[in-house]
Amino acid sequence: MIELVDTYWLYFLVGQYPHGPLGGLALTVILATLGLVLALPLGVLLGLARFSPRAGLRRPVTAWVWVVRGTPLLMVVFWAYFFLPTVTGHKTDQFWTMLMALIVFDAAYLAEIVHAGLQALPRGQLQASMSLGMTRSQALRSVLLPQALRHMLPSLINQFVATIKETSLGTIIGLSELSFIANQINAQVLVKPVEIYLTLALSYFVMCFGLTRVARLAERRLAS
């Protein structure tokens, strides 16, 4: 395994970069980070809509969230990669396809996190804020949402862990993320699949376990 890592470590980390497209571990981290960061504003808006007393707003958003949450991410990736080009007439590359799929998928899960965070707050806070002259939107923006986001931090970190693992589906459409690079190395070496995929598993474990520990630390600090 040491010889394998010594030979392919740079390819494993960044793919063909700088002589080709960025890939490997670096692309996985960038894709997961962008997916979660760009999905967060949409998830907050959807979560606020789920918390709205207006049924005309709440029900369509709730239905959309349930549909996305009930659909495998692989299907969302296929829709983005094969269906959208037939509708728009423009084919997106693998990176943007996977990023759009992650944003749509993560936004639905983040909407539920935001909705649960708002519901966990005492309802008297909303009533007290409105009794002081605030509108409902002002109370949500200035009083409830900051508290909810603070308590949602561990859940957001856990969603980041899930997003890192979800990027591995990019290999289905030829995206040169971490799993794809491992498959490429295995195709070149042929005789060391155990070592290659063990290294791949350890890479995911280190990233996800480290973030899980950060989430646990955040939970303890919020509880204290």
Characterize the structure shown:
The structure is a single chain. The protein is 80% helix and 0% strand. With 224 residues, it is mainly alpha-helical. Helix 1 packs across helix 9 (178-189). The longest helix is centred in the last third of the chain and has 31 residues, at 193-223.
Give the key terms.
224 residues; mainly alpha; 0% strand
Termini Cα gap: 44 Å
Overall pLDDT score: 86
Q: Quote the beta fraction.
A: under 5%
* Order of H and E elements: HHHHHHHHHH
Query: Which class do the helix and strand fractions yield?
Result: mainly alpha
Number of separate strands:
0
The number of helical runs is: 10
Biggest beta-sheet profile: none
Q: Give unreliable regions as ranges.
A: none
Shape: globular
Q: Roughly how much helix do the residues carry, as a percent range? A: over 70%
Radius of gyration: 21 Å
